[in-house]
Amino acid sequence: MPYINSRVSTAMTAAQRVSVKEKLGRAISIIPGKSEEWLMLELADGCDLYFQGKKAQPSAFVEVKVFGTIPENCLDELTGAICEIYEQDLQIRKDHVYVKYEEIDKWGWNGSNF
Predict the structure, then answer these.
(1) 55 pLDDT exceeds 90?
(2) In CATH, what number is assigned to the domain containing residue 97?
(3) Rounded CA gap, 76 and 55, in Å?
(4) In the chain, which end has fewer C-beta atoms inside a 10 angstrom radius, N or C?
(5) CA end-to-end span of the chain, whole Å?
(6) Which domain holds residue 90?
(7) Cβ neighbours of residue 71 under 8 Å, at least 6 residues apart?
């Protein structure tokens, strides 16, 4: 039950959206037991993000929420993969990407809860 909320300050083309979606779908499998099959993804572009007090710099804020826990050894690898995706596909420098992780112990789906 992973959910990735992606907010970027730049506009995304349709091709960029597809590429980012596919790459994040593969990257989520870095966390054991997580896959694109259960991934919900939000891609919001053109957001008013200010980084270091400036709006002109392309930047991104990415939230990764998962049901359960994320093994510590997966965090650096997933952060690296996310930053690489945003730098390659959206030309947002790695040092302008924040990634927030949230482990959830209560998650609802299909009319009930886990």
Answers:
(1) no
(2) 3.30.429.10
(3) 27
(4) C
(5) 10
(6) 3-113
(7) 31, 32
How many separate domains does the chain show? 1
In order, the DSSP letters of 45-68 are -S----BTTBSSS--EEEEEEEES
| Longest CA pairwise span in the chain (Å) | 44
pLDDT higher than threshold 90 for residue 72:
yes
Asked if pLDDT for residue 54 goes beyond 90, the answer is no
Spatial CA neighbour of 88 closest among 13, 34, 16: 16
The pLDDT of residue 114 is 85
Average pLDDT over residues 17-21: 98
Answer whether residue 22 shows pLDDT above 90.
yes
- Rounded CA Rg of the chain: 14
- Average pLDDT estimate for 67-75: 95
